[in-house]
Amino acid sequence: PILYFFFLIILLPYEAVVQWVETKFLKPFSMLTIAFAHAFQNITMTILLYFFIKPMIKAAKFVVRDKTDARIPENMFDEKLIHESPSLALEFVRKALLYMGSIVKDYFDMVREYSFKENSKTVEEANTYEMMIDTYDQKLHDYLIKISQAGLDTNDSKKLSRDLDTIKDFERIGDHLTNLVEFFKERYSESQLLSADGTSDLNELYDVLSQMLDDTLESFANEDPIVARRVVENEDIVDELEERFRYRYIERLKNGEITFIVAANYPDILANLERIGDHLMNIASSVIEPLYVPQSIKVPKSHEVDKDI
Fold first, then answer.
1. 296-306 burial by CB neighbour count: b if 16+ within 10 A, else e?
2. C-alpha of 191 from chain center
3. Residue 42 sits in the same domain as residue 90
4. Is 60 a member of any domain?
5. Which helix (H) or strand (E) holds 287?
């Protein structure tokens, strides 16, 4: 009923304008009258609908829900969409970022498993994951730059800035996961298995990071600042665990419980896991505040220097 009433409100003045133009400038019932009516309709509807683009996008997302949420449309990087609707192009980027995040999550789970059990296939799979993440990093970055040149309102500009930072944070997490694969590959080549305490410590750290990664993806997908704040709170826990476990590792060395060999890269493993927590906090913090300053451009802690490799 509401749509019908709205249609009638538009139809009456529309018909009056067409009749006036026909009487004043055109022949009655001519082809030019039909052409003018059609053109006038398109122009009028374009102007009216322009102010309802974002509500229509939200309505479409609500009605047509993506149950898999795991694939990017083939036309993801279609530049025509940028010119037609930069806001809609940003929504497609959001979907792509969620897919990129799911790749990072799968990579994280694989690296965690590899940390405690050697698998010859993991190194090859890690190269594939790294290549996928780097590819999306480059494509999404370039696509967002093109969107920025199309002209955006203030709110969309904030989203674009946040998305650029999020892409880089996902890419850096991928780099740290690749570092971890190399560290454990080196340990396995030297037959240097984790001690019982080392295994327990890493499992505890992985548990917190796994929850942080899940909460980060959920908060970003739903723009939920409450879930995002959980990520920020857990990042403090990761910092505390990293420092505590580093100290415990040194104590085990001092007490002769473990030996220092070529593959004694346990502190590097802890440092890379801690940095993953920093990047997850960056993403979550941008959900809370789009203009959040990423951790990556802040002054690093003393033990983090040269660890972000």
1. eeeeeeeeeee
2. 37
3. no
4. no
5. helix 266-288
